Amino acid sequence: MGRVPRRALLAAIVLMALVLAGCGIKDEPTGAVDPFPTSAIDAAGEAVAVTAEPVRIVSADPGATAILRDLGLGDVTTEATTSTVAAAAADPLTALVVVPLSLDAAALQQLRASTGAPVFRYGADPLAEAPAIVTQLGVSVGRGPQAATIAKAMTSGLDALAERLAGEPRVRTLIEGAGFIGYGPGSSAGMDVAAAGGENVLAMDQPIDIAALPGLQIDAWVSLQPGGSSLTSLQRFPELTDVPAVAESRIISMPRGGFPIDAALPGALQALADDLHAAPLTAG
Description:
single chain; Rossmann fold
């Protein structure tokens, strides 16, 4: 499908879905209105059309899978991973395939070659667009008003968090994962940390230089699981003795891929904000 102006269409369709969610849809004399065919805008800004009620949806994104279940489509949704989604989508009954926005170009090309079903890329960059993409996913499967209700609650939660953090200082945070790799603000975890009031001490993803850490004024250490460091493992490095996050046992675990974009996202970010702001702040 052709690329369309992303923000304008997202705003228009989200507004319409919210109106429908608040007012309801009037039945036609012969029964409920059939929402199909549908047209939605995915996270990549591309139009995605579904012609009829899906009998099989393949989802390789945990957040999207949770939203589809919330919309009552769990029975027709098949979970996959980014490595198995092409095989799962090859089933001729597949009506829609949902993949993370971060899926690389080669894997996306392989997927599209394996299925005739439309592909919906799911994600939010910036994270504030999470409610909009939830609504768009709902529109694509004929559940726009129901998805808009979920999105409205998400927006309320995210707005409340942003209002709370507006008066609090940012917390200098290191994000670390398996192989002692540090993650920058553009990673999924980096966006979550920023939304929760953290200030990333790294500008990009990179191997961590232990000798440089004492000079970074790290107040909180986010350890991505599986594979991230524990307090015990960090305490084995003499160089880290005076790093505030280690000295004050401020090691926070979170999922390696960040939090799923689903109805629980605002609560997860609120809990992360609580953990981050429990860290002692370095003067200056």
